[in-house]
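Sample intake sheet
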Amino acid sequence: MAMPVYGTKPGTAFKTIYQEGVYMDEFITMMKNRMEVETQYLDQLGKLKDSWNPKWRESSVWSLISPILSHFEEEITRRNAFVDDLQARFATAPQSDPENDPYQLFEDLEQAYLACSQADRDVQTPSAESALKEWHSTFSVYRPSPFPEPG
C-alpha cells in the first residue's frame, strides 16, 4: 500500500519499538530454553561426578585421571555460575503481556488515516482549488456564511 509522501502511517514509530520488544521476548525465550538445556546438562554432570569411585584417589591411576576430574569439577562450577547469572538477570528482566497487543490500536487507525489522506488529495485537485477561489471572490462580510472569513 503506497503511503503519501507528506506523512507517515500512524503508529509507525510505535510499531518499530513494539517489534523490538517482540525480538527481545523471543531472545529471552531462547535464553530460557538454553538455561533449561544447561540445567539438564548440569544434572548429568552431577550424576557422572556421583559415580566417581573414592578409591581412585589412592590408586596409581590418580595422577592420570585427576586433571580430567578437575576439569569436570571446574566445568560444573562454571556452568552453575552461568545458570545462576541467567536466573538473576531473568528475575529483573521486564516481561511483555502476550494477551495485549498495543499495536492493534494503531492498525485500527489505518482506515481513518487512509480516508484523511484521500480527502487531503481531493482538496488539492484543480477543481477544489477553483471552488475555493470562487467562494473567496464572492465572500461578503454582510452576507452570513457558514464558513469563516478567508484571511
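Comment: The chain has a mean pLDDT of 80. The helical segments are 12-50, 62-92, 104-108, 110-123, 126-138.
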